[in-house]
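Researcher: Re-running this chain for the archive, since the previous output was lost when a drive failed. Same request as before.
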Amino acid sequence: MSTELIVPTLGESITEATVSKWLKNIGDNFEADEPLVEIETDKITVEVPAPHAGSLKEIKVSEGTDVEIGGILGILDESKSKTPSPKKTENKEEKIKEEVKAVKVETKSSPAKSSPSARKIAQENNIKLEDVTSSRSDGRINKEDVVSHLSSSNKTTTNKGEREEVVKMSKIRQTISKRLKEAQNTAAILTTFNEIDMSKVMEIRKSKNQEFQSRYEVKLGFMSFFVKAVVKSLQEYPAVNAEIKDENIIYKNHFDIGIAVGTEKGLVVPILKDADQLSFGEIETKIIDLSTKAKDGTLTMDDLTGGTFTISNGGVYGSMLSTPIINRPQSGILGMHNIQKRAVVVNDEIVIRPMMYVALSYDHRIIDGKESVGFLVKVKELLEDPSELVLGI
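Model: Regenerated structure tokens:
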């Protein structure tokens, strides 16, 4: 009996996906819930599992091809019997022995911790896992690390006489390009700037970081201060937290803050849900969790759905100043930048202070200049005197 392998529903806004890799060949057997094919959307990469045990009879959509949600990926043959024939049992036992042997060899030559998908790709491409650099703090090697290593290796072995290399854009990169251009064409984007004296925030981090880390098991970063400051400013300037839909303005009474994260495949924006209800420790913990999932490629649609305002930290890459593009349908995005010691005037005296330029890009159709400037000034005031953020008064 044959059944169809269907592209699952992946989210309200996702209508199609791209088949990035078949994990089984035609004729291969599989168990129930075993991953059969990897598909990539504009937001996430997911593995489609087998609905039952059986074998792959036919591949309907080849690698690199787009398919609509609900489309047929392939045809499966169901297992006719749960009791395998002696020959099949023998073959299966031999296969298991080979896999165990391979695992033993890998363990002996490569002590690195790695995910199953990373080991599979490494084995297929004859890559030693000890040669792969992990992007995670715990040293675990994931699929993205192996792909990145493979990509850099290919570039190294490219013929030096070749002046150009043509690489097809990934589904995520195509969607990023489309959405950024759509934002520029649709919204009336303006950017206002200010600068923040980070002295007080840095003093708090220095004096409280050890105690904070022992309590929450994470470091006290800058992002929790910015999230807190943004939420309070959004409460005072609700238009910055709103969006335009048709001829209506939708004001949001919840504060779901998107945190832009750069990955090998492109920029993703996981959402910090109900940020107004989170403590400093909870914010830092959730940000680390979302960033790790983003780099591992394990973000879910729930992690990426929604968002009323976005924070982008170009400072981690050394950016001094930028004009971020809003993440539609949101109406505002705050750009953080690197901290540099500069000479500034305080009480008519020139002093050296750690300063950060900040930028607010906003949709002028819904946010007036007065509101945008007021919002950014409020963020500045809260960070230069964090007592309101810390004490909640």
